[in-house]
Amino acid sequence: RGISQEPGSRWTEPGCQSCTCQGGQVLCDTVSCSVPCSHPLPAPAGGCCPTCTGCLHEGVARAEGDVFSPSDRNCTVCVCLAGNVSCLSPECPPGSCPSPSPADCCSCTPEKCNFRGRTYAHGARFSLDGDDCTTCVCQGGEVECSFTPCPVLECPQHQRQLGPGQCCSTCRDPPAPAGCFLDDNGVEFPVGQIWSPGDPCELCICQADGSVSCQRTDCVETCPYPIRIPGQCCPDCSAGCTYMGRIFSNNETFPSALDPCLNCICLVR
């Protein structure tokens, strides 16, 4: 490959090939790796042989001296020493569980419960005869009973009711409102009542749920000199004309305020 090598020299080519120069010829062979450990780490970058400085266990690299538990056996403890992984599992005595919820890692068979002439498996939930409001559970040979929890009600006490066959109280529906009560002036209007709150262009109605809905009226002036009638929302163009602060009826004539020689007439169009 264009490089001069001394007789007897040895070097490594890409692909982990070990080569030597003998009698003017290059002899190559695959590098032979001696791995003295059971869980070696892959060869580092640029290297050919795995290393025993650390361990590779279940696809996870572990440092030298690392203590860990396998993913499928939480109670087994393993340690990485010189590329070898050693694991220890706890010794479990035979028999049933010493308690309803054992804290150790031993597998056991929970005890069944004998209650009122019946046998229940561990973890079984059941109700007492004729009492659906009490729930019992079997835990390691012992039965624990408690009342069925009820939700917190937001209605006052006088609006709560307990129906037949129910364990928890419920809220009664509030009575339908008889009308709309206005706090500002203390007036109560019946459902369907329409009134004006003070502005003739605004009308309000008392709805069936006790709420008040108001809406304004948009006026469109159709004449240049409309007459505004007190208490009426929109100006009236059919009653006559307003001129210089005075009101004239339809077809009424009157002198002009700008020229005494001119007469004006009110025409409703």
UniProtKB/TrEMBL annotation:
It comes from Cardinalis cardinalis. This is VWCE protein. It is found in: Secreted. Keywords: Glycoprotein, Secreted, Signal. InterPro entries: vWF_C/EGF_Fibrillin, VWF_dom. One of its GO terms (biological process) is cellular response to virus. GO terms for cellular component: cytoplasm; extracellular region. Residues 1-53, 53-114, 111-172, 178-238 form the VWFC domain. It comes from the Eukaryota. It holds the Pfam family VWC. The gene is Vwce_0.
